[in-house]
Amino acid sequence: MKRIIVCLKQAVDVTQLKVDPATRQLITASAPRKMSDFDKNALEEAVRLKEKNAGVEVVTVTVASEEAKTVLREALAMGADKAYVVNDAGLKDVDTLGTAHVLAEAIKKAGEFDLVLCGESSLDSFSGLVGSRVGELLSLPQVTSARKLSVEGDAVVGERTLEDSIETVKAKLPALVTVTREINQPRIPSLMMIMKASKKEIVTWTLADLAVDKAKLASKIEVVEVLAPKTERKRIRITGESVAEIADKLAKALIQEGVVKR
Amino acid sequence: MSEGKGVWVFSENADLTLEMLGKGREIADKVGAELAAVVIGSNAADWANELVKYGADKVYLVDNAMFGRFQAEAYLSVLHNLVVNYKPETVLIGSTKNGKPLAARLATRLEVGCVPDCSRLGVDEKGRLVGERITYGGNAVAKLTFKTKPQIVTVPSRAFEKPQPKKRSGQVVKLDLKAEQAKTEVVETKPLETSSVRIEEAEAIVSCGRGLEKKEDRVLLDELAAVLCGQVGCSRPLAEDRKWFSEWVGLSGHKVKPKLYIACGISGVIQHVAGIRDAKVVVAINKDEQAPIFEVADYGVVGNLYEILPALKEALKKQLQ
Fold first, then answer.
1. Option in B105, B191, B296 nearest A136 (CB)
2. Is B259 in contact with A259 (CB distance < 8 Å)?
3. SS3 for chain A, per residue?
4. Which residue of A has its CA nearest to B259?
5. Cβ–Cβ below 8 Å for B303 and A246
6. Which chain B positions have a beta carbon within 8 Å of A129's beta carbon?
7. Which domains does chain B have, with CATH numbers?
8. B242 alpha carbon, distance to own chain's centre
9. Cα–Cα distance between A33 and B122 in angstroms, integer?
10. Per-residue pLDDT tens for B25-40?
11. Which tens digits make up the pLDDT trace of B3-13?
């Protein structure tokens, strides 16, 4: 194995997202961005494979419609050798299929590879489609939702948790694997690693640099609305002189609601 | 070959297939279309006939020993072949760990859109199929529709009710299709040790968060859950960080819809709240009166769960007698 590609998304940090209470619209433009959690697990796994297998290079590929340098620097500090970013304003409204087309073309342009690693889902949109779409476009065998991973000779072996079983799946390289958050605990890069990373290369492309058929980037999905959920809860505080009194009142309320089986 | 507005459902999971037939029937009736189920399996003729009772007008049955268990490339090529030949307008696919990548790959092969994990789904006044999904870590609900056809949707378990079986007529179409060569091989399968009852099916859930001090203290929750004929759950930190539980309730864990959800010592981060959006009644018990869980609860008690839970158990026992 010589080269691992990791797909990295710069995602909206959903824990710091604000909502306009009047319109229930999300204020995403000013929300901080960070490396999507699941993708960080994918990167960590790639770096661990590199540490176990001498001569392996880890390359990251990112698709963005805005500056993503902070995320790429972090990736390089964690141990990636080189980072590619396709940054183009024309990518602002692409959906999962468009994103996958750009990623697939960028991966092809970045050169030969043995393994593509992706997070199972992204932190913000959480659709969990892009990894499988990229695999399909590149005609790669896929191991999805892997929570354990190893490379054995010319094959990758992944363990996945299904609804009622744990399955071990083998795929011949080159292959694509999507990982869950259980797979590892991503490292926090040391100051030394951060300094070393500043010398590593970030290659920026625009759509014009890639062999992407522009017609394929048109969104296939129409957004009707994206709004903060309405809270329709009653928000009744139960108070009392004693714990027993509170418990009595609460029990009574729950029985009246008809949510307790007699 | 019939072309037109067909609504299709497919899942390798039996329950989910039935749940989607219920929702699929509703959509098909609204747009005046035929409802079809796709069955890919081995010795599956009885099952195919059964699906008619649950609302299918037609069942496409691909029955071959090689389809005895799910194989990604084989199932994908069969489903793709059927969709290309019969041109359904809408395809609902069960959002299991195998079903979701299947949907993503099918949609890619067809160069069309896919709306995953629709917790709600319906036809709007303009006749558009609109899927609702939780996004931005629970901060928002997105309503999405399609610009391309077929419209591919994935549906999570327990999002929709299983319909009652009825005596009705439908047609089972047996097809002999070859599958493309497998690129992946399942080398081992072992059963997953989970509680015998799935938490998605619980009518009452007593759930704990960081406020639980020791693993052994879950007995307090167990005892209350027993009175409620319910189950015990937890928030993510108790499973992921402390490893006291193997599964959790929340956006990244199980999305639940019990009649009663009692959150004990759970602060109420948005990802957790997204997992209990469909609970009928939410109770919050927390020492911190500023905890955000109170904003999304029907009944809130500011107090120590170690005192409240035993007292609530006794009060319920007494009042239920």
1. B105
2. yes
3. CCEEEEEECEEECHHHCEECCCCCCEECCCCCEEECHHHHHHHHHHHHHHHHCCCCEEEEEEEECCCCHHHHHHHHHHCCCEEEEEECHHHCCCCHHHHHHHHHHHHHHHCCCCEEEEECCCCCCCCCCHHHHHHHHCCCCEEEEEEEEEEECCEEEEEEECCCEEEEEEEECCEEEEECHHHCCCCCCCHHHHHHHCCCEEEEECHHHCCCCHHHHCCCEEEEEEECCCCCCCCEECCCCCHHHHHHHHHHHHHHHCCCCC
4. A259
5. yes
6. 100, 103-104, 107, 114, 116
7. 7-175 (3.40.50.620), 199-320 (3.40.50.1220)
8. 26
9. 33
10. 999 999 999 999 999 9
11. 468 999 999 99
Report the amino acid identity of residue B266: I
Q: What is the DSSP string of B217-233?
A: GHHHHHHHHHHTT-EEE
Min CA distance, A116 vs chain B (Å)? 15
Residues on chain B touching A136 (C-beta within 8 angstroms): 104-105, 108-109
Binary contact (A261, B228; C-beta < 8 A): yes
pTM for the model stands at 0.90
Residue B148 CB contacts under 8 Å (≥ 6 apart), including other chains: A220, B111, B112, B113
Residue A185 burial (CB < 10 Å; 0-12/13-18/19+)?
exposed
- Which of A96, A126, A147 to probe the B interface (max B CBs under 10 A)? A126
The reported pLDDT for the residue numbered A87 is 95
Run of H or E residues at B204: strand B204-208
In Å, how far is B170's CA from the nearest CA of chain A? Answer: 31
Residue A122 tokens read as 């992204």
Residues of B in contact with A31 (CB under 8 A): none
A55: left (phi over 0), alpha (psi -120 to 50) or beta: left
Q: Measured between beta carbons, which residues in chain B are less than 8 angstroms from residue A32? A: none
Under 8 Å between Cβ of B42 and B124:
no
Tokens of B151: 């419209």
Cβ pairs bridging A and B (under 8 Å)? 265
Identify the three-state secondary structure at position B59.
Answer: strand
Residue B1, pLDDT score = 36
Identify the H or E element spanning B115.
strand B114-115
- CA distances, B85 to each of A85, B3, B173 (Å): 39, 9, 13
Looking at residue B2, its pLDDT comes to 42
pLDDT, tens only, A23-59: 999 999 889 999 999 999 999 999 999 999 999 999 9
Chain B residues whose CB is inside 8 A of the A248 CB are: 315, 319
